[in-house]
Amino acid sequence: MTRARISDCPLARTVEVIDRWWTLEILHVVLGGHTRFSAIRRDLETPADVLADRIAALRAKGLLEVDDTAEPGDPTYRATDLGRSLRPLILVMAAFGNHQLAPEDRSVVLVDEETGREVDPVVVDRATGRRVDTAGFVFARGPKASEQVAARYPEPQAGG
Description:
Blueprint: H1 10-18, H2 21-31, H3 37-44, H4 48-60, E1 64-66, E2 77-79, H5 81-84, H6 87-99, H7 147-152
Antiparallel strand pairs: 1-2
Protein backbone atom coordinates (compact mmCIF):
# COMPACT_ATOMS: atom_id res chain seq x y z
CA MET A 1 0.00 0.00 0.00
CA THR A 2 1.19 3.51 -0.82
CA ARG A 3 1.83 5.73 2.18
CA ALA A 4 0.94 9.41 2.08
CA ARG A 5 3.78 11.91 1.96
CA ILE A 6 1.65 14.27 4.06
CA SER A 7 -0.28 12.12 6.52
CA ASP A 8 -3.04 14.64 7.29
CA CYS A 9 -3.82 15.45 3.63
CA PRO A 10 -7.38 14.34 2.78
CA LEU A 11 -6.42 13.61 -0.83
CA ALA A 12 -3.60 11.35 0.32
CA ARG A 13 -5.90 9.54 2.77
CA THR A 14 -8.34 8.89 -0.08
CA VAL A 15 -5.58 7.47 -2.26
CA GLU A 16 -4.47 5.27 0.64
CA VAL A 17 -7.98 3.81 0.92
CA ILE A 18 -8.35 3.30 -2.83
CA ASP A 19 -4.73 2.13 -3.24
CA ARG A 20 -5.21 0.06 -6.43
CA TRP A 21 -7.29 0.71 -9.54
CA TRP A 22 -9.28 -2.46 -8.96
CA THR A 23 -10.69 -1.13 -5.67
CA LEU A 24 -12.97 1.24 -7.57
CA GLU A 25 -13.66 -1.35 -10.26
CA ILE A 26 -14.87 -3.96 -7.75
CA LEU A 27 -16.90 -1.39 -5.79
CA HIS A 28 -18.46 -0.17 -9.04
CA VAL A 29 -19.56 -3.72 -9.89
CA VAL A 30 -20.91 -4.45 -6.39
CA LEU A 31 -22.70 -1.08 -6.14
CA GLY A 32 -24.18 -1.83 -9.57
CA GLY A 33 -25.90 -4.92 -8.20
CA HIS A 34 -23.48 -7.75 -9.05
CA THR A 35 -22.94 -8.98 -5.52
CA ARG A 36 -22.32 -12.74 -5.76
CA PHE A 37 -18.71 -13.80 -6.10
CA SER A 38 -19.52 -15.66 -9.32
CA ALA A 39 -21.24 -12.60 -10.82
CA ILE A 40 -18.38 -10.27 -9.86
CA ARG A 41 -15.89 -12.72 -11.34
CA ARG A 42 -17.87 -13.08 -14.55
CA ASP A 43 -18.34 -9.32 -14.90
CA LEU A 44 -14.68 -8.50 -14.31
CA GLU A 45 -13.28 -11.60 -16.04
CA THR A 46 -10.85 -12.06 -13.15
CA PRO A 47 -9.38 -15.40 -12.05
CA ALA A 48 -11.08 -16.69 -8.88
CA ASP A 49 -7.91 -16.68 -6.76
CA VAL A 50 -7.02 -13.12 -7.80
CA LEU A 51 -10.55 -11.88 -7.13
CA ALA A 52 -10.66 -13.65 -3.76
CA ASP A 53 -7.42 -11.91 -2.74
CA ARG A 54 -8.72 -8.53 -3.89
CA ILE A 55 -12.03 -8.94 -2.10
CA ALA A 56 -10.17 -9.98 1.06
CA ALA A 57 -8.13 -6.76 0.81
CA LEU A 58 -11.31 -4.68 0.42
CA ARG A 59 -12.88 -6.44 3.40
CA ALA A 60 -9.74 -5.75 5.46
CA LYS A 61 -10.03 -2.05 4.57
CA GLY A 62 -13.68 -2.04 5.62
CA LEU A 63 -15.03 -1.37 2.11
CA LEU A 64 -16.89 -4.67 1.59
CA GLU A 65 -18.56 -7.17 3.88
CA VAL A 66 -20.03 -10.63 3.40
CA ASP A 67 -23.79 -10.94 3.42
CA ASP A 68 -24.58 -13.38 6.23
CA THR A 69 -27.39 -14.95 4.21
CA ALA A 70 -25.06 -15.86 1.32
CA GLU A 71 -24.97 -19.37 -0.09
CA PRO A 72 -21.89 -21.40 0.82
CA GLY A 73 -19.46 -21.60 -2.07
CA ASP A 74 -20.75 -18.43 -3.77
CA PRO A 75 -20.65 -15.67 -1.17
CA THR A 76 -22.55 -12.43 -1.60
CA TYR A 77 -20.83 -9.13 -0.81
CA ARG A 78 -22.16 -5.71 -0.06
CA ALA A 79 -20.46 -2.37 0.25
CA THR A 80 -20.10 -1.02 3.76
CA ASP A 81 -20.95 2.59 4.56
CA LEU A 82 -17.31 3.42 3.80
CA GLY A 83 -17.50 1.57 0.48
CA ARG A 84 -20.78 3.26 -0.47
CA SER A 85 -19.26 6.65 0.36
CA LEU A 86 -16.90 6.18 -2.61
CA ARG A 87 -19.79 6.00 -5.12
CA PRO A 88 -19.87 9.78 -5.77
CA LEU A 89 -16.15 9.63 -6.51
CA ILE A 90 -16.72 6.75 -8.95
CA LEU A 91 -19.50 8.71 -10.68
CA VAL A 92 -17.41 11.86 -11.03
CA MET A 93 -14.37 9.90 -12.22
CA ALA A 94 -16.48 8.19 -14.88
CA ALA A 95 -17.86 11.57 -15.99
CA PHE A 96 -14.31 12.92 -16.19
CA GLY A 97 -13.30 9.99 -18.36
CA ASN A 98 -16.31 10.49 -20.62
CA HIS A 99 -15.61 14.22 -21.00
CA GLN A 100 -12.39 13.20 -22.77
CA LEU A 101 -14.41 11.35 -25.43
CA ALA A 102 -16.90 12.32 -28.10
CA PRO A 103 -20.42 11.22 -27.06
CA GLU A 104 -20.47 8.51 -29.75
CA ASP A 105 -17.21 7.03 -28.38
CA ARG A 106 -18.43 6.48 -24.80
CA SER A 107 -18.86 2.86 -23.74
CA VAL A 108 -20.60 3.52 -20.40
CA VAL A 109 -22.76 6.49 -19.47
CA LEU A 110 -24.65 7.47 -16.32
CA VAL A 111 -28.37 7.78 -16.96
CA ASP A 112 -31.48 8.63 -15.01
CA GLU A 113 -33.07 5.20 -14.50
CA GLU A 114 -36.57 6.64 -14.85
CA THR A 115 -36.08 8.62 -18.06
CA GLY A 116 -33.03 6.95 -19.61
CA ARG A 117 -31.58 10.43 -20.11
CA GLU A 118 -27.80 10.76 -19.74
CA VAL A 119 -26.80 12.84 -16.73
CA ASP A 120 -23.66 14.78 -15.91
CA PRO A 121 -22.81 14.55 -12.20
CA VAL A 122 -21.43 17.60 -10.43
CA VAL A 123 -20.25 18.17 -6.88
CA VAL A 124 -22.34 20.55 -4.82
CA ASP A 125 -22.28 21.89 -1.29
CA ARG A 126 -24.84 19.92 0.72
CA ALA A 127 -25.99 23.01 2.68
CA THR A 128 -26.44 25.45 -0.22
CA GLY A 129 -26.68 23.28 -3.32
CA ARG A 130 -24.00 25.46 -4.98
CA ARG A 131 -21.47 23.85 -7.32
CA VAL A 132 -18.07 23.67 -5.65
CA ASP A 133 -16.01 23.25 -8.82
CA THR A 134 -15.86 27.01 -9.34
CA ALA A 135 -13.30 29.66 -8.44
CA GLY A 136 -15.37 30.69 -5.42
CA PHE A 137 -14.34 27.55 -3.50
CA VAL A 138 -10.78 26.98 -2.31
CA PHE A 139 -8.98 24.68 0.10
CA ALA A 140 -8.09 26.13 3.49
CA ARG A 141 -6.37 24.59 6.48
CA GLY A 142 -8.52 22.78 8.99
CA PRO A 143 -8.34 22.98 12.78
CA LYS A 144 -5.96 20.00 13.06
CA ALA A 145 -3.62 20.99 10.22
CA SER A 146 -0.01 19.92 10.64
CA GLU A 147 2.75 22.45 10.06
CA GLN A 148 3.24 21.04 6.57
CA VAL A 149 -0.44 21.52 5.67
CA ALA A 150 -0.64 24.91 7.39
CA ALA A 151 2.29 26.09 5.28
CA ARG A 152 0.42 25.19 2.07
CA TYR A 153 -3.08 26.44 2.84
CA PRO A 154 -4.42 29.73 4.23
CA GLU A 155 -6.61 30.16 7.29
CA PRO A 156 -10.33 30.00 6.45
CA GLN A 157 -11.75 33.47 5.83
CA ALA A 158 -14.28 34.76 8.37
CA GLY A 159 -17.85 35.39 7.31
CA GLY A 160 -18.22 32.18 5.26
